Amino acid sequence: MASPVLFGFLLLLTVALALVTGFAPLRRALFAKSLMPLMGRVLPRLGETERIALEAGTVWWDAEIFSGMPNWSRLEHFRCQPLSKREQAFMDQQVDTLCRMLDDWQIEQDREMPEAVWDYLKRERFFGMVIPEEFGGLGFSEIGHSRVVTRIASRSIAAAVTVMVPNSLGPGELLLHYGTDEQKQRYLPRLADGREVPCFALTGPEAGSDAAATQSTGIVERGMYDGEEVLGMRLTWNKRYITLAPVATLIGLAFRLKDPHGLLGGEEDLGITCALIPRDLPGIEIGRHHDPMGVPFNNGPIVGTDVFVPLDAIIGGREQIGHGWRMLMESLAAGRSISLPALSIGAAQMATRICGAYATVREQFDTPIGRFEGIEEPLARIAGMTYVMSATRTLTCGALDAGERPAVLGSIAKAYLTEGMREVVADAMDIRAGAAIQRGPRNLLSRMWMAIPVGITVEGANILTRSMIIYGQGAIRCHPFVQKLIGAVEEKDEAKLDKALFGYINFVCTRAMRAFALALTGSRLAGAPEGDLKRFFQHLSRFSAAFAFVSDLSMATLGGTLKRREKISGRLADALAWQYMAAAAMKRYIDEPKIASNYDLARWSAATALYRTQEALRGVMENLPNSAASWLARIVVFPLGARFRPPSDGLGRRVARTILEDREARIHLTEDIFVPQGDEVGLGMLEAALDKAVRAIPVETKMRDAVRAGRLERAPGYMLDDLALQAGVITSEEYELLDEAREARNEVVQVDAFDADTYKSLR
Question: Which parts of the sequence belong to the Acyl-CoA dehydrogenase C-terminal bacterial-type domain (predicted)?
Answer without folding.
Answer: 476-754
